[in-house]
Every structure is written in structure tokens, then in C-alpha cells.
Amino acid sequence: MDKERPLTGRIELHTWRDFTKVMKVMGAGKWIYRGHEDVDWELKSGLDRHVESLLGEPLSRKMKSCGKAIHKDWTRTDFAHNLPRAEFFAISRFRAMAQEYQTWDTNVDTLIAMQHYGAKTRLVDFTTAIMIALFFAYEKRTTGKARAIYAVNYKALMEQDGMESGYMDFLKRNERQIDRGDERAWYELESQIENHHFQQFALNEADENIQACTWERQRGIIPLYTACSNKRQMVQAGVELMPRTFESFDENLATALKIQKSEIKNPLRLVSDNFSHAPYSPALLPSALIKLVFDASMEDDAWQFLDQANINASTIYPDLVGIAKSVRYDGRILGV
Q1: Where along the chain do its domains lie?
Q2: Which of 134, 291, 293, 331 suits 40 as a labelling partner, its CA being 20 to 30 A distant?
Q3: Over the chain (336 residues), what is each successive 10-residue block's mean pLDDT?
Q4: Are 1 and 254 in contact (CB under 8 A)?
């Protein structure tokens, strides 16, 4: 990455013309996206939020109901020490209970399925399609708040410490060759994020991470490009990001992107004026993470913009789930 470019940035959008320009400028980059209904939401996994809820009140009160009083105040680190075993047990239990419906070959496949069906896991959902992220930012029609889309540079995640050398070792061990197996293999990978060999390497890394069942690991992110693993992920162009440790997701992401944790929620503002008035090109965008902030005034026209792209619940969610979610009561008929 260009060291002269900022690593993180914030782009404030005030009109849908601004967003159209953003899509055009970012189109050439290796970005993955996640939409948030509230600009103040942090990048957290379901497991992060679950642990924070446990820490929100004295844990001794929670455990006394089970006859197990705890005589000290637990911290996030205490949970991080115990969560690897808890995850391994949860995966085993889910696989055993769900075998009547489906079976999975690996632990990571099972964890992805758990995420898909609503279990609290350390995985965080992203998408390669910015319009899909926009849908999730506006899935709840009315909030009166600014919305946000986080954009993370996928290439930066692949280039994190240890990932590149680990991938080359994987190719050598498995006698895999890309472009005759020479030193250009990694750079060939940069141009196609769906590369089969890298994805197999990432899945192996994730499975070994789960199998290790220990908290002593180096922070980072394992990107799992799993768009074809099930129908919903294929429709939503899904990418799962798996933190290497059981510390919070944003701590792992900050390490992977070589930024400060505080820069994720509050990155340096990129422009002080309307984005449509700024002469930006892909080369001038931040190189690791961008937070797109949508003004609350854009809420009224959001669904008109999405409808024009045929992005709605019936196209985002497969089968009857999507059809049911797409049924809405028209405000004009209701007289509001």
C-alpha cells in the first residue's frame, strides 16, 4: 500500500449524487462493505455484544442463580481465556443437534452455518457489493439517525503479517501452482480475490485456529470468502471476517490493518465539504478503511434509490423469508 495515503478516512454524504460518485471512485478498489443502521454502532461481532451484555451487570448475580457465586469482577480478558473452549463445545453441540438436517465437514464450515442461522459467533458479515451493504444500512426504514457503511480493503487484510508467507508455504506444501508457481503467485492473487487456492488456505487457517482451542494467539483477521457456500451468502455476495483471537473484533481488525482501534469508529474526516465537489480518485482514497456516513436527511429517498437497483428483501433473502420481509404496508394507502 502507498505509505503516503492515509490509512483511514471518513466521507460524509449529503445527497444520493454523492453516493453515486463514491461508488464510481471506489469501484476499482478491493473493498468489502458492512452497513449499519446507526452511525454510532461499532464494528462488533455477535459474540462481542453477548460478552459485553454479561459484563454489563455483576456476573456474580448471574451465576448465583446457578448456585455458583463468583467473588471477583470478571473482565473481557477473563472471557477471552475461556471462550476458545466454549466455542469448540458450541460447534460440537450444534453439529450433533443439527445432523438430522445437514452435516458439515469442518469446524469452520459449522461455525459459518451457526452464524448464518443466528448463533452468537466471533464472525462478522461483510459483502463485496456496496449496494447490499446499503440495503442493510437502511433495512429498518425510519430511524431519524445518520447511517453508515464501513469499507475495508480486502487486499490489506490478505497482506497482513504472516498471511502472505503462510500462503506461499501452503502452496509449497500442497504442491499448488499459480502461474508456474513462481514469486509472482502472490501478486496474481491480488487481482482475483476469489482465487481458489487462497480461499482453501484461509479455510485451513481458520479451522486450525478453532482446533487449537487456546487464547494465546496473535491478533489479526482471517478473511473467508464464502459466497458459494449457501444460497443466502451467494445472493448477498457474503464475506465472513474471523478474528484470530477472542479479544474484540475491532482490536483484531486494527492489528490487521495496522491502525489504532479508535480510528475504526472515528476515522479522520476525509473531506470538509460535499463529496460531489471534491476531485477524488481511487488513488487518493484511504488505503485500509473508510467510513461512509449518510446524512439523516437521505433516509426519505433511500428506498427509492434501492428500488431502482432492484435491491429489496425479496432479492436479498432467499425463499419465503425474503418474500415475507418484502411485504410492507404502503404509507400512501394508510394515509401517512
Answers
A1: 8-334
A2: 331
A3: 75 91 79 95 93 68 46 66 89 90 88 89 93 92 90 86 74 60 54 64 89 83 72 75 93 94 86 56 82 94 89 76 60 48
A4: no
